[in-house]
Amino acid sequence: MEGFPFVMEQQVVFRDIDMLGHVNNAVYATYFETARVEYLHELTRELSEQFSFILAELTITYKSPAYLRERLLIGLRVSEIRNSSMVIDGQIIEKTSGRLVATSRAVLVHFDYEQQRPVPIPQELRAQIARFEGKER
Q: 6-133, superfamily in CATH?
C-alpha cells in the first residue's frame, strides 16, 4: 500500500458479517482501531508506558463492501501532528483485487490520565513518528 508505512492484514470472519452478507459498518471502526493499536505498539515498543492516547474523532468513508473470508489490508499513516494530538489516515483494501473498501481519519489526543487533560506530544515521540514514517529531516 503505497504511502502507508504501516500495513496489517485482517481476515473477514463470520462474526463481522451482517444479515445482508457483508461486513457490518460498525466493524470497520474495530478494524481501524486494531490497526491503530498495532501501529502505536510498533512505533513505541520500548516507550509504550510513557504515552497514552485517547480517540477524539473518527470518520470512516465506505467505498465498497467486504465479504466473508476476504483478506483485507489496513494501512495507516500520520498525516498531521499538532501540539497534543495527531491525525492518522487509514485505508482498507481487499488484498487480492486491490479494491478500495474504506478510508478513515482518526484524531488521537496525547492524554494524561492522572491530570485528566491533554498534554503536548513530546519531541522524542515526534522524532520516532518521523523515523517510522520515513519523514526524518
A: Hotdog Thioesterase (3.10.129.10)
The whole-angstrom separation of Cα 107 and Cα 56 is 5
Alpha-carbon Rg for the chain in angstroms: 16
Within 10 A of 17 (CB to CB), how many other CB atoms are there? 17
Domain residues of the chain, as ranges? 6-133
Among all chains, which residue has been given the C-alpha cell 474495530?
30
Q: Residue 122: left (phi > 0), alpha (psi -120 to 50), or beta?
A: beta
pLDDT tens digits, 61-105: 999 999 999 999 999 999 999 999 999 999 999 999 999 999 999
Ordered alpha helix ranges (H), 1-137: 25-43, 123-133
Contact 107, 87 (CB under 8 A): yes
